[in-house]
Design brief:
alpha/beta; seven-stranded mixed sheet; 15 helices; 31% helix
Length: 424
């Protein structure tokens, strides 16, 4: 018996590393055949693709030092782009309107000037927040459409606490100036996006992962907190004195012996996005023009596209380049077949002028059941019911899906570290 950790993603690796550093031996159990979770990667014909798209932008000296000790990092300026009806706009679009036709700019500016004023504390949902921040025309044609693509829900179904500083709210001067000239200023919430020079994103954890006892292909099917036993799909089981879990809350509630039905129902009511990652490799070095960009057109399934080869040339063979497109859905929606998603992605990105289909040498599509936590209006109630129950059973939850929180990678790492140090 001892401490066990369920999941070898960034929070699980961090918890294991800091516990062992403090002299507490641990075992990590991972359902997959490799470590890293969504930070993991795979390679096809010399093209490396991250399992899901990540950067780090922490300035915390301790965490940044650990990441850099594992792998030197590139500091990419946080310059991103938007695609809207054939036009390319710098990000954020709301104050970089210059490339748009005059009529669009007139309608956006009129909507911005005439937008409803309302104190933030009185705003009831994300739709209203967007209208108050940007005016009706921009809200309806840009973030409304992106919300449906990224979250799989209507804006009115989301609450607003998650927004924080993730979206820039310009004043009238910024909107007007950006409508007449291309802006040099970067309005993104961080100046740099960092990425490892070698080994893909998960290599930021290489130093932490060294020496950890990780048991692979160990999918949990049952947890008995009374007798402190975890049972795996392969029929084996283990006892524990301390249980730390990064498993998604909707999954763990299905595994626990004797769990009250109201807790199970609360877990089932939680929303998240699932989605496909489409990975494309090209035999030309200059396909990728942008580190990443957002797509607002609703006939294009992809919501965001990134370039692994621009993140690091180590991700592609010499003379090649690569792109990855994210396509998201609400977890309770009907999910189209991968062939349909792959076909739409290739055809639409090709029509955008990014590449021709004959330049593709690698194409891959993979589905992830858990991509992002969705902040619908009932999230806090349902989440608390589940977390309170897990705590009452001595199960410590960590990470994005274990805490059911909007965590960037360094925040998930910090959460695993806090758990190891007994910080709540």
């Amino acid at each position: 018996m001892g401490t066990i950790i369920l999941g070898s993603g960034i929070s699980g690796i961090s918890a294991g590393y800091h516990l062992e550093k403090a002299g507490e031996p641990i075992v990590i159990y991972e359902k997959d055949n490799d470590w890293g979770g969504l930070c993991g990667n795979f390679t096809i014909d010399g093209f490396r693709f991250d399992r899901f798209v990540h950067f780090t932008f922490t300035d915390d000296p301790y965490i940044k030092g650990i990441f850099e000790k594992s792998s030197p990092l590139y500091d990419h300026p946080s310059i991103s782009t938007n695609y809207y009806k054939g036009y390319w706009l710098k990000h954020p679009a709301q104050n970089n309107l210059a490339p748009l036709p005059t009529e669009d700019k007139v309608q956006i500016i009129k909507g911005f000037i005439n937008r409803k004023e309302k104190p933030v504390e009185q705003i009831s949902d994300y739709e209203e927040w967007l209208r108050v921040q940007f005016g009706d025309y921009f809200a309806e044609n840009f973030p409304f459409k992106y919300t449906r693509k990224y979250w799989g829900l209507e804006p009115k179904e989301l609450e607003t606490k998650w927004v924080g500083n993730r979206m820039h709210s310009p004043d009238l001067d910024e909107v007007l100036r950006g409508a007449f000239e291309i802006q040099d200023k970067n309005f993104y919430y961080t100046k740099y996006m960092r990425y490892p020079k070698k080994g893909g994103f998960r290599s930021i954890l290489d130093d932490c992962r060294k020496g950890l006892d990780i048991r692979f292909n160990k999918e949990v099917v049952k947890i008995d907190p009374k007798n402190k036993v975890v049972t795996f799909k392969d029929g084996t089981s283990t006892t524990y004195t301390r249980l730390i879990s990064s498993l998604p809350l909707p999954e763990i509630v299905k595994m626990i012996d004797g769990i009250p039905s109201e807790v199970v129902k609360a877990g089932e009511r939680l929303h998240n996005t699932c989605g496909y990652m489409i990975s494309l490799g090209f035999k030309r070095p200059d396909i990728a023009k942008y580190l990443w960009f957002y797509i607002y057109d609703e006939d294009i399934l992809s919501s965001r596209v990134y370039s692994p080869s621009m993140k690091s040339p180590d991700n592609v063979p010499e003379g090649c380049s690569s792109l990855q497109a994210e396509v998201f859905f609400d977890c309770k929606a009907d999910i189209p077949e991968p062939e349909i998603v792959l076909k739409n992605t290739i055809e639409k990105l090709s029509k955008m002028g990014l590449f021709t289909e004959d330049e593709i040498v690698v194409k891959d599509i993979r589905f992830e059941k858990y991509a992002n936590v969705t902040f619908d209006k009932a999230i806090y109630t349902n989440r608390q019911i589940v977390l309170d129950y897990l705590q009452s059973q001595g199960i410590e939850s960590i990470g994005r899906f274990g805490k059911w929180e909007y965590m960037w990678t360094f925040q998930a790492f910090a959460d695993g570290m806090k758990c190891a140090k007994g910080v709540k």
